Amino acid sequence: MNSRVTLDKLPLAKKSKFIPANQLRTWRGSLAETGGTLAVVTGTFALLHPGNLTAIREAARQASHVALIVHPDGSTTADSSSATAEGAGQPSAAVRLELAEHLRAVSAVSTCALARAEETLEQWRPFTLVHCLKQNSGDAITTSARRLASRVVDIAPIAGCFTADIQKAIRNRQTPVAVPEAALAPQPTLHDLEQFLNSDTGGRPACNAMRSIAGRPLVTVNGCFDILHLGHARLLALARARGARLLVLVNDDDSVRRYKGAGHPVFPIRFRLLALNALEAVSYTYPFAGDNPLELLALIKPDIHIKGGSFEETRVEDERRLVESWGGRLEIVPLVPGFSSSAIVGRMAQTQRPTTDDRRQTSDEENVTGQLLGGGQPEVYH
After folding, report:
1. What's the number of CA atoms in the CB half-sphere (13 Å) around residue 166?
2. ∠ Cα 348 235 243 (to 5°)
3. How many Å apart are CA 292 and CA 107, to the nearest integer?
4. Apex 304 CA angle, 303 and 306, nearest 5
5. Superfamily assignment of 7-171 in CATH?
6. What is the rounded CA–CA span in Å between residue 185 and residue 274?
7. 136-187 confidence digits (pLDDT tens)
8. Crossing angle of helices 93-101/356-373, nearest 10°?
9. Over the stretch 270-329, which tens digit does the pLDDT of each residue have?
10. CB 266 within 8 A of CB 175
11. Class assignment of domain 184-373?
C-alpha cells in the first residue's frame, strides 16, 4: 500500500501574516478601529531560542496583537553577536519571515531596509516595544523603535540562551543547553495526555468526542524537533490541516542522543516541547522515551499518523501495522530540500566564515522560500 502523499493532495497554507511595507498603515488602521493594541518585537529570528520566544510571550501579555520586525539580510545585531551570520550560517530573511508566521502568538510579520527603519516604524504607531536588554540597541531598527514606541518594556536576558551562547555550547559539546526553569514547558504527565484526549477545554469539545461525533480526525507526528526550522513548521502545518487537532510526540533527550549521537540534542526536551507549543499548528505535545512511539500510539489511536519523507517506508512498518489495526492510516509526506536540524548544528559548530557549502545552503533556502511566498508548493521536511 502506497501511503506517500503527493503535494497536489495537500492543502494550501493559511493566509499569510506577512505585511508588505505598502500595507502597514492600512493594517495598523484596521487594528485601531477594532480597539486592538500592538506590541512589537525586533530581531533577526535566525533561531527560535529561549530569548526571543520569551520576548514574544511578554509582547502577547502587553497587547492584543504582536508584530515581529525581522532584520533584513546582512544584519547581525540581534544579540550583540555576529555568530548568526558567520558560524551559524544565518537563513535568508525570507526564510526567517516564513518561520515567524507559524508562531501562534504573532499576528503580523514584516521587515524593512535599515535605511528606511524610521519611515517603516512610523506606520506601526502606536505600539509597545518589547526589547531584551542583551540585544544590541544601536542598530537602526531598534534605535528607531525605541524612539517611536509609546512605551518600552525592557526584559532581562535569559542567561546562556542567545545565539552566540548556543553556538558556543554546541562547539564545546555542552549540550543540552542549560535553559532556566522559567523558559521551560511543564513536564507533562500521562494524566495530562488523557485530559487532552478526553476533557472539554476552552469551550471546545474533547478531542476524542470530536472524532467520534463530528468525524474530525486526530493527527499525530513524531520526531526530535531539536532546532525548529522552516521544514518542521511546514510539515506540522500540513499535518494539522489533515485533521482537527495535531498531537506531536517528541523524543526525549536520551532517545535523541542514541539516535543522533554525542552533542545532541541541543535543547532539552522541556524547551523543545515549549517551542513546538508556540507553533500555531500544534494542539499538544508529549514526550516519549523509547526509540519509537508505538506504546503511545496504541494509547492515543490517531486517525492519521504522519511521517516526514526522511523515513523509509520499511522502517515505519511497525507503526503502519499498528495504526491500521484500528482503522487509521500512516502517511509519509515528502521533504523540503535544504532544511535540516543536523545541518544547522553542523554550521553552528564552525568557527570560520561561511564556506561555499554554507552559501549554497542559503541559496537553496532562498529558492525554496521564493516558491513558498510565490504560491508554489515545495516539498516538506521532517
Report:
1. 29
2. 150
3. 36
4. 160
5. HUPs (3.40.50.620)
6. 5
7. 666 899 999 999 999 999 998 888 888 888 888 888 888 899 999 988 999 9
8. 50
9. 999 999 999 999 999 999 998 889 999 999 999 999 988 766 666 788 999 999 999 999
10. yes
11. alpha beta
One-letter amino acid for residue 343 of the chain: A
Question: Using CA atoms, how far apart are residues 55 and 40, in angstroms rounded to an integer?
Answer: 10
Q: Are 259 and 292 in contact (CB under 8 A)?
A: no
Q: CA 199 to CA 339: how far, in whole Å?
A: 37
Cβ atoms within 10 A of the Cβ of 349, count?
A: 15
CA distance from start to end of the chain = 22
Asked whether the CA dihedral 93, 247, 58, 252 is positive or negative, the reply is negative
Residue with cell 515505519: 316
Segments making up each domain of the chain, as ranges: 7-171, 184-373
Q: What is the C-alpha separation between 27 and 34, in angstroms, rounded?
A: 11
User: Which residue, 279, 372, 277, 278, is CA-closest to 287?
Assistant: 277
Closest listed residue to residue 106, CA positions, set 96, 116, 114? 96
CB 98 within 8 A of CB 121: no
pTM over cut 0.85: no
Cell numbers given for 147: 524612539
- The secondary structure element, H or E, covering residue 28 is helix 24-33
3-state class (DSSP) for residue 285: strand
For 351, the grid coordinates are 568557527
Domain 7-171 and domain 184-373 have a common topology: yes
Q: What is the CA radius of gyration of the chain?
A: 21
